[in-house]
Amino acid sequence: MRATLIYGAGDVRVEDVPDPVLREPTDALVRVLRSCVCGSDLWPYGSMPAKEKGRRIGHEFLGVVEETGRDVAGLAAGDLVVAPFMWSDNTCDFCAEGLQTSCRHGGGWGIPGVDGGQGEAVRVPQAAGTLVKLPVAADSALLPSLLTLSDVLPTGHHCAVTAGVSARTTVTVIGDGAVGLSAVLAARRLGAERIILMGRHKDRTDLGREFGATDVVAERGDEGVARVRELTGGDGTHAVLECVGLRPAIETALAVARDGGVVSRVGVPQDPEVPMGRDAFMRNITLTGGVAPARAYIEELLPDVLDGRIEPGRVFDRTVDLDGVPDGYRAMAGREALKVLIEP
Amino acid sequence: MRATLIYGAGDVRVEDVPDPVLREPTDALVRVLRSCVCGSDLWPYGSMPAKEKGRRIGHEFLGVVEETGRDVAGLAAGDLVVAPFMWSDNTCDFCAEGLQTSCRHGGGWGIPGVDGGQGEAVRVPQAAGTLVKLPVAADSALLPSLLTLSDVLPTGHHCAVTAGVSARTTVTVIGDGAVGLSAVLAARRLGAERIILMGRHKDRTDLGREFGATDVVAERGDEGVARVRELTGGDGTHAVLECVGLRPAIETALAVARDGGVVSRVGVPQDPEVPMGRDAFMRNITLTGGVAPARAYIEELLPDVLDGRIEPGRVFDRTVDLDGVPDGYRAMAGREALKVLIEP
């Protein structure tokens, strides 16, 4: 089959790789119907040292089950399923607590010996725990929105949930990428009535407004902080959803948090340190969030996607086939595309 | 009257200062019955640059109301009262939320124009909001325990509450100072059944065991982390109460937190950065806590002190009069005393 490999910064290739086969009785094979490129794929795409041997990439996909191992209960060939961006047994104590990203028998896609999602097919470890059946046909118009259940929608939701977003909280969302826009959607879904979106790409913040943002702040740094404070009577917001991962974003997040407020981050931190010294301490700011246990949220979010109450798939603004994946990376890295859908 | 001033590192003096008088209609004058030296007083005592003019110090006291301004409702001369370590109106929106440390009309003791607690008397701003009446006589044996309501007991309690301590959480407490021991007491009071105390002063950790610690880890750094992990099946604890404020303590705290766990800090951070990069992110570690809104907790904790269910005053192991305050500082800084009580 064909699959995507990354060899280094700016070097993504689609190549022939061995067809996946069942290795463990808990595996399933899934033929990929839709995959996509993630903002987090852009970190290695931007900076990974060049390697002789590529590694598989992609961690968001939905598809059709083709074969299941003998220990995979509840799934059968022909089932349409979505995979969260990490696989997990969904039975260990961490999974039972809703922290499938720390599953005792789980892991990530594209690590050695495990397929990536940007290919024609995937061997899914711990398939019974990992995959969630989708009650739609393979030609459903909902596939793009359902695909966001892999990552961006539950990631935005995790950010909002851990930040304690409710009807009583004011919210700032930092970042107008697909995760930031999903966080807007999630915050609105949880009842937030005041959502300030910080982003400077008008087409994206326009979509953010449709997703529920009540205010948009295009300024960055100190000016952006001043603008959010001005919009909130000087106080900042109860919840701040940091959806970028870079140092200036977390600095802004801390600065626009109301005293006693919560900064939740779901952008992979690119800095080993967080500036939470005396100021954050004296203002009782909490830092929470982290890699989203997407699997924990899929059943909760699925009904809203199925009945069209939310349309998270609107974050996809470009579609490519497998051969177009390298172009898709270029477009996303160059900010020409918000999020690229892949139809293998 | 006489009061304590700090002039620089190692230089604390007790001097004659003007008697306090009412300045605002919301003020009260309190004659101090008991005060004490705080671990946080040791930061300036350890490093403050020498000044020509001293500044008042001390932020924990209880005493008798001598005079009240015309807007001070609910208090009268003769009332025995305790003051939390920051003053607040207790009516603004932050106070209503239980964050009196961010009161819109509040502040700290010992700032310019405001008395410190280590003296014979104190002008208390926002007295109706700040002071809490104590239903005991001025010669009550409970005074030391009641004095801990100013700071160390609610600070330990804030640490445990914000960390989400309950009967279902395992707990590590880092630091065997008065706040750490108070955090042990608070965690036990909130129902925690497994409390690991990290500290290396046996007399202090012995008191910690009496306060509720089930395990003591004397090792520090990597060895200490390994020991806590060994005690918890490799996982670390759900809640980590960081009661020191130095970089190695927060590093240890993050390392002994279970995935999905919470580190709460109440030791004033001495480092502007917190090492919460990718590891903390991938393990969904939350950092919370901050300066404790002691005022928010006094009514809740008071009954347990009054009926002797908890004896937080046991952290005092030395008593001095006002003239003995400089010696008290020396003893605490030199770890000869755990916490020094002052009887002016």
Automatic annotation (TrEMBL), chains A, B:
Keyword Isomerase: no
Matching SUPFAM superfamilies: GroES-like, NAD(P)-binding Rossmann-fold domains
Any single Pfam family the record assigns to this protein: ADH_N
Keywords: Metal-binding, Zinc
Domain Alcohol dehydrogenase-like N-terminal: start-end pairs: 25-135
Cofactor(s) this protein requires: Zn(2+)
Descriptive protein name: Zinc-dependent alcohol dehydrogenase family protein
